[in-house]
Every structure is written in structure tokens, then in C-alpha cells.
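seq/struct pair 1
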Amino acid sequence: MAEPAAAILARFSEQVLGVPLPVGIRLWDGSTAGPADGPAFVLRDREALRRLLWRPGELGLARAWVAGDLDVDGDLYELLKRVAALVWERDEPAGRTATLRRALGVLTAPGGLRTVGRTLSLAGPGLPPAPPAEEVVRRRGPAHSLRRDKEAISHHYDAGNDFYALMLGPSLVYSCAYWQSAPHTSGSGSGSGDTLERAQEAKLDLVCRKLALREGQRLLDVGCGWGSMALHAAEHYGVQVVGVTLSVEQATAARERVAAAGLDHRVEIRVQDYRQIDDAPFDAISSIGMAEHVGGARYREYAHILHRLLKPGGRLLNHQIARRPVRDEDTYRMDPFIDRYVFPDGELAPVGSTVSLLEEAGFEVRDVESLREHYALTLREWVANLEARWDEAVALTSPARARVWRLYMAASAVGFETNTMGVNQVLAVRTGTDGRSGMPLRRDFLSTPAPAAH
């Protein structure tokens, strides 16, 4: 008698991956396996299983998800937590061929796939399934060259300004908010809890206060996105702002927002690489969610350039996602799914490495604040926005692209909640030749309200 496909997959998990299924599995043939309670993977067709067998782990699962061959029944966050050790915290197999041979070896053993006849076509033999079209595979030129960085940024950020506005809300801030309290209900903005818009404004103001911005100063916003930091600093602190981004779509929207706010005389938005800025000095620099794109091999250069662009006594606020130290390495590539579908060539480093490299460049690091829990709350709000307007999001991009962002943001939320990732604001100063920092003796300045700009 033919063995149900789900039972075969359960045995594959135990014998090849070495663990029992942590979540339920429901297949197109009606068969089920794994725990009956809690969330479950739903494999819609044979292609989903072929993808998982060719690349057991993160990439195979992600490809099946993006292609629409696989879905989730139940709480997506709970499912991701249960499979984290099996997928996201597990090394990818050494090679596709070796993995396939191991899989076929198990599935064709006595009692395995051989007992179900033609079902051998689930895994092969033959070529692996083609990856979904949204996957970035071929990349031109050396990593973190000017051209390749521009292409990577375009892949991520030129997904459509309306799509990002749908997810991020009116603030158009694509970095973690700064919450006074958890939102009352995720995505609703109702009740006694904080709202995403208020929390994002609080984050922008926190950055401005850490930089001690004053009217008439000159601020460089590296990776300015849709211009939210530049607008806030110009409007509330009266500074002159230069914002740079590699995304043409972001720059277009940012300029429109600046014009609508009547701040053209204070804010200039450029499509420019930070390595090409030649009109220093600046009184302060903000880099919010940009340094993850720099790369470990280029980070010393990044730190030295920002140090050179600042006046003596000028401050840098570096807001950056971090990864926990592993294997004594200083920098880390993104996980395969994020590298192929979300942030091509992105890298995460432990916060200690970031601090050391900033100090090596000549900065004095004066304050480090972890915002890990804040990012988890923010990501859940973004996912709620996306899910609430799913049909519109799909129409603005594509079903596959919308699925990429839902999985990416939900998995990232779980990463911050479980402390496998962090995010930190590092405040550093370029001290003068006499060693003076210009910093106050105490951190009371962080509670100072924003001055009224004229």
C-alpha cells in the first residue's frame, strides 16, 4: 500500500535533518504529519516538496513560500519560532548534489519512497526547480563597488513608493520606531498603547537630541530614504540638511515631500553614494539603517569617511542592526533568503565590531543604546499593515514580492524577539585636537524637548 507523502516527509526530517517535525505538515494529497496542535505548513503541490528536498533548510523553504507552493495555516510568528533551529539557525548543506543524494538515499530505502511507485518524481532525479523570478543570483562586479551597491539598493528600495507607504504608514520611516509602550493591538493604532506614527516621530527626535542639533547647523543624513529624518530635523531643529540615497524612487518621493512641506531652502536630497560626498564639513551626521549595506570589507573606509566629513566636535549617530558573535568572525553575510530576495550583499556585524571600527577611525564612542525590543514591535506593525491591505499590496508589486516582504519582516520580528539579532544606536564624536568632545557631563540632554525652529 502506498505510504502518504506527509509520512515520508516526516521520516525525511528525522533521518536526514536529525529532528522530528516541529510543526504540522499538510500536503496536497490530504495527508498530514507532525503535531496536530498549533501552526502548520501547507504544501500545495509536488513542486513545494521538490524545493524542500533539493535545498533542505532556509532557501528551499523560502523559494517554496515565494513561489506560492507553500503556505502557513495558523500563527506565522509561532511557526517561525518553532522552525528557527531547524531552518534559520541551521547551516545550509554543503552542496545541492550531496543533499539530493542523501534525501533520495533515505526516501528510496526499504519502507521509503520506493513503496509509493511513481512518487519518486517528487524529488527528482533531474534538474532542481527554477527559483522564483524575484531571486537575485547573478551580480556584476566586486561586492560593494559603486555600481554593484547601487544595483543592490535599487533591488530593495525601488519596489514602489506606494508599496512602502502601505507598509510603513505615513511616516515613511524604514527603521525601528521608539516606543513609549507597546501598541494596544497590532496594526490598529487604537486603545491606550502607542501608535506607529508617534513612535517613529519619537525615534527621529531621539536621533536629533543625541546629535544636539541646533538652528543653523549642517546635517548629513546618509541613506536618507524617503526624507523623514531630513524633514524632521529641518522643521523642528532648523538645521540645513543634505540627504543622500542611491534609490532614485526614494529621492523622487523625498523631494516631493520636502517641497510640499515648504522646506526646499533647508533640505537638499541627492542621489549620491556617501563615498562621493565632497562638500564637507558637517556639524552632525545621521546614518539610520544604512550601515548594513556597507559590508565588512568596506566598514573601515565607511568609518574613516564619516570621520573626515565631520567638523571637530561633530557627532555621528549610527543606527545599525547587529548579529550575535559567531565563530570569532567580525562580519556576517545575511541569511540566504534575505541575501537572495531582500538585501543583496547586506552584512551584519556584532555591535562590538562596529564600536571598535568607529574608534579605530578616530571617533570617541560616547553612548550605545539597544533598541532590540523596539524593532520587534515595529516589524509586527509593518506586517499587520501589509496583511490588512494584502490585495492592494499585491496589485502594487506582485504576489511573490508581497510574500517576500511578509516572510522577511515576520522572520525578522522573531529574530529580534529571540535575541538572535539586535539593533543599536551608537553615538560617537570627532573630538578636537585638544581632546574636547563637547559632550555634557550627564545624559540628561536626552530628555530635553525639541527647540522651536524659526
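seq/struct pair 2
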Amino acid sequence: MSTANPEVRDSALTVTTPDGDFAAFVALPAATPAPVVVVIQEIFGINEDMRETCRKLASQGYVAVCPDLFWRQEPGVSITDKTQEEWDKAMKLYTGFDVDNGVSDIIATIATALKRPDAVTRVGVVGYCLGGLLSFLTATRTKVDAAVSYYGVGIDKHLDEASNVKHGLLMHIAEADEFVPAEARQKIVAGLSGNPHVEIHTYPGCSHAFARHAGVHYNAVSAKLANARSTEFFAKYLK
């Protein structure tokens, strides 16, 4: 799937950390300098879904950057949700993933991206699945201007950090998420609903990854609604 926008350009970025260097996919808008949005991957790496997400954000006027957060385990992962073999690999990577290192790599990505001449100082993050958790944690551990979390897995285990959210956080929660039990979803909503910086939307009947482009659980109506909310949210906080 393509944005079909000839003015959006694919690019790349190298992020340097004390532990080593890793790559990031970049989609550039027609007009720069522009705000930065860091796109945080699912358990499938920087696949076509993540690249398309970046291109759509670039078409909306953002420098979209997707870091390779699996680089410590296996650089360059790009798989789908279509086969059991791919799922097995994705779950192996997920279980071996260090969340704190992931947040540190996102922070390094933000710092590197903001040094680009085509970027301005406003920055947001958006994450999906594992990335939804990392987006939440980035909101609690940094001063990003805006964070969007799609069906984050494991957020209920980190609610002790919820009071640290001081800037805009938008959450999209699937009510039939097979990876986030109802009790966990209720804890997340209860733990965050009192924070004036947090906006929460739930999507009845939707499974995990309902907004994944061409995903097996893609729900066009709910994905369109969630993405429209995200577009409005980023415009409010970043432009």
C-alpha cells in the first residue's frame, strides 16, 4: 500500500548509542522543516505497515522516523502477521525484548532526529502493540509534546508511572483485544482516566491490531476513526 504522494520521500537515519548504532526508516514531507513523529514498531519490525504509517504521517507534514528497536537481537527485521512461522519469530523477538533499552533507544532516536536540519523542535511518538506500550512509557519518561498509543500490551504493569504523564497522551484501546484481558483494560482506563493530559478511546468489538494496514484483524471503520483522532491530536500538539 502506498500513499501515492510523489512529494513524500523515503530516507534513512543512523542513531548512535553507547551500545552501538542502529538504523531508522525516515519518510520526509514535501515542506521542511517540520515536526518529528517517531513511529514505534509492533513485534514485526520495520515492515511495510510501519513504512506506510511513516509515509502517511509525512503526507500530513511530519518528519516520520521509525527506529529499528530489534537491532540488539536481529537488525533489519521485516515480517508480517500472515504465517505461523512469522508469528513464531515475532513472539521470540518480543519475549527477548528489553523494554527499558527500547525506551532508551527511542530517546536516542528523538535526540538524533531533532538535530536534522529538516526538523523543528516539536516531537511526538505513536506506537502499536509493543510500540503502544513503548509510546506510553515514552510519555511517562520524557517531555515529548504528544504521544499516541494503539492497543498497547502490558501497560497495566506500568501504571505506577502514570502520574508522570505531563503532556498529551492519546490512547486507542480495542475492547476485544486478545492480548489485553478485560481486567487489564479496566485497570488501564481506571489508572489513567483522572489525568487531564490523557484522552482514551475504546473500540467495541475490535481485536488487537485493528488499525494494522492489511492486517488479519483490520477493521476499516474503527481504523479510520482512530487514525482521524490521531491526526487531529498531532495537529493540536505539534503544529
